[in-house]
Write a structure and sequence with these properties.
Rossmann fold; Dna Ligase, domain 1; 734 residues; homodimer; 7-stranded mixed beta sheet
């Protein structure tokens, strides 16, 4: 099964070599099928004592009608729940596909070794007492990890609730704390066990069914990427739900999830990621580093992966309902059919708020509605079938709007009024959904009065909501997903870059003990990588400076350059707008004198950087900071106050595909300043995009770069390019 | 009852004369008590035919155990539901306090007259067929309005569902379509009938009870302000819920709602206002006019009135639950007690997202928790009592954190786990709430597994939620409301202004047929109103210009001034940064020549405006546009791209209190640019505030001003004031 996921990835012709070479993917696809569909299970630590995990898991396996053989392992009792016990796993006279361990943490290691000796490859370690308790537990978990690696085992947990597979030929409930869910198309993986139990209970209340359910706890071995691959390959799973508190990797997750959400057989992934509050990166040396909070990293990862991040459990299940029904909309044009004006307005507001469009009906639709609706009804969108509407009027309205070619999806609103028979209306909506190739969702407003209709709709698989806002938000999520899977997969562009020169420059700087590169060195690096750089020359004398200026043309800028001179302005080391030879010569001499006076006569000076004075343009900042876990994180923003005071920046993990560069540029709040306002021409966004892709390649190819700021990149009107004016690079030491 | 609401308003010492004089309050407080608690009701149009409104309302009155006398009026039948009918309202041999009309629209007028002749003062017109159908219906409604005004009647509706009063000595359900709600502390008024019915059904499902319920339909006579006053005076109503599609007035609503939410006996008002989508004000002549969409007006109104605007029905009831429990928090510091880590993190995220703070416990709290919690529990906030917690451990944790003086409110989270007995935990939380003087809310995660706990909590009036996000958002709303009612009511400051001069200037301009004032006239007006104006003089000759410049000091700016010259720059009519007399003289002559060349030799020129060149500062835009319904709407924003491209502006209705000016300034997204970034000093916000208040007084005193832009107002560092650099004023014609 994991095989077909990787096949998917291979078929994806655009996931080119740039990505593969840059991704250090240690977790190759693995076969977890025996974990999900074992022929035999040993329940080590099965217990007669009710209320314990060891008793519950055994009972759940039995009551869930597990299709294989169960071997309770307990040396202290002869049988549990009527099943003969064995004293130890080695005493089982059969191959054991899966061992579930519910025993004290210190005993886990030995039992795993014993089972592995017997040939068992798959384990679920329910036991707590590992990493989560700190101290001893951490070492215990590390040993378990090592065993898994050395012996090629797959271990789920420790500190988890277990797993469930509702496939009719498996029917395995090897979990405790949660009820056996009804079978359905949702695959759920959760890092929190307690939350997982609550999720099963919620889902049950909403009539949502599951294919597979996995609580993966401390993920000592099997992590969310392994489980995503496995759910992607499971034909019963149509929608993947995940709750995570952290991700084990960045780029591997992005590549895996991207292949799942945008492959040949795309499945939506809905994720709750908690811990949104900012974690301090305040000590970072670059702008980029200080702006990249942990949550921005996760937003970037989910966005690149096509994963739909939700904010709450309610949103998770709202979306789950709409995605469980497989019809995808062709666009954002939404029709509303309602039996009351007020809720129709609420739905319209929500339609706009969540980025959908109110459909404009064709004349033939209006004509058809006019023929069928009462004279006081509204024939425009939202269609008001009026408070006394019965199911027949809803049917006519649905027939009319669903045949309109400018309608992509439909929300049916029902309020309980005197003549309303919600059950009959529910039947009509269910029929319409059956025949219609556009998504239809229902909003039954109220509680008990509309209950008969809700029951019918749920039974027929029509996504059904209590409130118009939730219904519309869910439709909007589906419309965005439909756009995502239809969007072409862009390339990872590969640029000619002089890697050797860059490496040599880094070697030299590090050898000289300088991890922070001064401007001229940073420009050397960027030039070697083909960035558009303002013409510059390092001059050793006033003569050289004047010659350089004459060659590049006036006006020019002079900046002091020396290995220790980081704050040039403070020491009189910058002179702008020099318009002739005399000015250049004078500036050179004054500058060198001023720097020596301020920093000491023996300060090392490499020379004076002569740069062509740039035409004014819009100031942009591009940057990169290397996240300890996720690798290089790219940043884009407008310069100056937009970045520093307003924090209006966007992030993505490198490497980025070409479309992602455009997304980064478009997703800042102030983006319209680049589109041209107040009569200005639009800025050259493709030029910025190319710099972002070059930056992506540079930092991916050179892991020694720890942080990098290009600040400012001056961008000119469309077609006139962009120019790097200043940059800084910080290398990892050692 | 309306008496005590107005008494409230009178007691409010700060609602000073400026406000009262400026508010044209035609709807004086009126006594609606006989409408809500009539001794006798005539049901005109009572019907034997089931399923009709005329049958339902009668049945609801009877089944609701109405405490007064019911007179069904129907000429065609002798009795309905066992009650003797009368053929007409005049045939009733008793005083009729309230007449409920469920008859065809054309018959309403006559019956109202007939009842009024008999002495009936209060009416509920259920009948549809008025304004909402257009044409005839509009005239019919206007006649009904006129009758109400002439004869001093109070009419609810038409086109409404009716009203309900659950007071035990009234028990009146004079509504159709909705069930009789359980008695409780919510007062609900709704412009949409169908939504109201759905709301009653939702509330019933959540166990929320009502004091009064009113569907007010077309509000021909009684509007939302009348009903708010009446609910404010009703002792049984503790929380007011309202659904509106529009408001009948602006300033009257603000004053009334402000007195209710911030008076001596404050009651929260929770409002759903639909129709958020932008209505076109695109044709407006000023910046302010073109930026003020209808929804911004409503946001401004609700904000000034202390009304809590909610986005959805779900949010409405979430908040209703938390406000039904009267304890107000002292601050934003929130403690979380949970039996699972993941949901604890979700609650923490929501705490931060909704603007609350995670409480930091005192040492004594940590000690107390340490003594009582298991070793693996978390003693910091969120307190993790661990998955196997029973009610006793929840009690210990609640005792500890509720005694911590740095905790203002508590969220108790329960996930269903093996050892969880939600009923017992529900009892413990209910007890804690009983003894504790801090708000406590519960989140029971899941559906059926936690149901026993939910039942106990609801029965004890503990606000209870399914999801941590909803619980936290509701706590945050209550904390904000607590801050609102504790905030001092600021004054309406009154400035010395030369009203006569302003009126004379307007008279002259209008007499000359100029509704759009050119810069020099606008500056004349603002100067008469005490705004800080850059020194200026209108010069008729190069000599006068040179003399003026010498007097005010160089550098100066010259701008052409003439009654028809609106776009000065386009015709060479602006010269900046003139540094000596020669430059001024030359500029004067060139300018006049250029203008005459471009606009014709006979173009009227008043002269040339000589202005002192302003020191650079931050550019601000202040403005006003007069909303057809709500009156003068003030705008504040940063100048240039912030206003034009980023639409980062704030609005409030004039007149504004002093604190509101500060709020306007603080509520733009880019506010921190005024706080001083990148080493700049903070800007003089009090100076901007004073200009806003002067603007408020100017536009309130002079209703002839239709639109006004001060653009830019240059603001200097704290203590250095602000200066009006340019302005335009547009007057109403005729």
């Amino acid at each position: 099964m994991a095989r077909s996921a990787s096949a998917n990835a291979r078929k994806n012709k655009n996931s080119g070599s740039a990505a593969s070479t840059s991704v250090s993917d240690s977790s190759a696809a693995r076969d977890l099928e025996p974990l999900f569909a074992p022929q035999s299970i040993a329940v080590v630590g099965a217990s007669r004592r009710g209320g314990t995990a060891g008793s519950e898991i055994l009972r759940n396996l039995i009551q869930g009608s597990y299709a294989g053989v169960i071997y309770p392992v307990n040396p202290k009792t002869k049988s549990i729940m009527g099943i003969r016990c064995v004293p130890s796993i080695s005493a089982i006279d059969d191959h054991v596909d899966l061992a579930v361990l519910i025993i004290p943490a210190p005993a886990v290691e030995k039992v795993v070794q014993e089972a592995a000796d017997k040939g068992t490859k798959h384990f679920v370690v329910i036991s707590a007492g590992f990493k989560e308790i700190g101290g001893d537990g951490v070492e215990r978990e590390n040993r378990l990890k090592a065993i898994a690696r050395e012996r090629g085992l797959s271990i789920l947990g420790p500190n988890c609730l277990g797993l469930i597979n509702t496939a009719p030929d498996v029917l395995m409930n090897a979990a405790f704390g949660g009820r056996m869910p009804v079978a359905g198309c949702m695959g759920l993986i959760s890092q929190s066990g307690a939350l997982a139990a609550a999720l099963l209970d919620y889902a049950n209340g909403r009539g949502i069914g599951f294919s597979r359910f996995v609580s993966f706890g401390n993920k000592a071995d099997i992590n969310e990427v392994d489980l995503l691959r496995s759910l992607a390959a499971d034909p019963a799973t149509k929608v993947i739900l995940m709750y995570v508190e952290d991700l084990s990797s960045g780029q591997t997750f992005v590549e895996t999830a991207h292949a799942i959400t945008h492959g040949r057989n795309p499945k939506p992934i809905l994720a709750i990621k908690t811990g949104r509050t900012q974690e301090g990166a305040a000590a970072a040396a670059s702008h980029t580093g200080s702006l990249a909070g942990s949550d921005e990293v996760y937003d970037a990862i989910f966005s690149q992966a096509g994963v739909i991040r939700v904010e709450s459990v309610e949103e998770l299940f709202d979306y789950a309902e709409v995605f469980a029904e497989p019809t995808l909309p062709a666009g954002r044009r939404t029709a509303i059919v309602t039996n009351a004006g007020g809720p129709g307005i609420m739905a319209t507001d929500a339609c706009i708020r969540y980025g959908l469009k109110l459909a404009r009906f064709h004349d033939y639709t209006i004509k058809s509605l006019k023929f069928q609706m009462p004279p006081t009804g509204s024939l425009k969108n939202p269609v008001d079938v009026i408070g006394d509407a019965r199911h027949d009027r809803y049917r006519s309205a649905l027939d009319a709007v669903s045949s309109d070619e400018d309608v992509d999806q439909i929300l049916v609103l029902v309020t309980p009024q005197a003549m309303t028979n919600s059950k009959e209306i529910g039947e009509v909506v269910s029929e319409s959904q059956h025949y219609c190739d556009k998504p239809i969702v229902a909003c039954m407003m109220g509680e008990s009065d509309v209950q008969p209709g809700v029951v019918v709709l749920k039974a027929n698989g029509v996504p059904t909501y209590q409130f118009p806002e939730n219904a519309m938000r869910s439709l909007a999520a589906k419309a965005r997903f439909a756009e995502w899977i239809r969007s072409p997969i862009a390339e990872y562009r590969r640029f000619e870059m002089d890697r050797e020169t860059v490496d040599r420059l880094f070697d030299e700087e590090l050898a000289a003990g300088r991890s922070q590169l001064v401007e001229v060195r940073a420009l050397n690096v960027l030039q070697a990588c083909g960035f558009p750089i303002v013409p510059y020359k390092l001059a050793q004398s006033a003569d050289e400076a004047a010659a350089a200026a004459a060659q590049m043309g006036y006006p020019v800028v002079l900046k002091i350059a020396g290995p220790k001179i980081l704050h040039k302005t403070d020491v009189g080391g910058v002179k702008l707008n020099l318009r002739d030879e005399g000015a250049v010569r004078e500036a050179f001499d004054t500058m060198v004198a001023s720097v020596r006076e301020k920093l000491g006569a023996d300060i090392e000076i490499w020379g004076v950087l002569v740069q062509k004075m740039l035409q004014p343009g819009k100031e942009i900042i591009l940057g990169m900071t290397r996240d300890a876990r996720f690798g290089p994180l790219l940043m884009f923003g407008l310069g100056g106050i937009y970045t520093e005071a307003l924090r209006d920046v966007s992030f993505r993990l490198a490497p980025i595909r070409e479309n992602v560069a455009g997304e980064m540029i478009r997703s800042i709040r102030s983006h319209r300043l680049l589109e041209g306002v107040r009569g200005e021409p639009p800025s050259d966004q493709p030029a910025i995009g190319e710099c972002l892709m070059r930056l992506s390649q540079l930092v991916t190819d050179h892991p020694r770069i720890k942080e990098l700021d290009i600040n400012p990149l001056i961008v000119y009107p469309q077609g006139s390019g962009a120019m790097v004016a200043d940059a800084r690079i910080i290398l990892s030491e050692g």
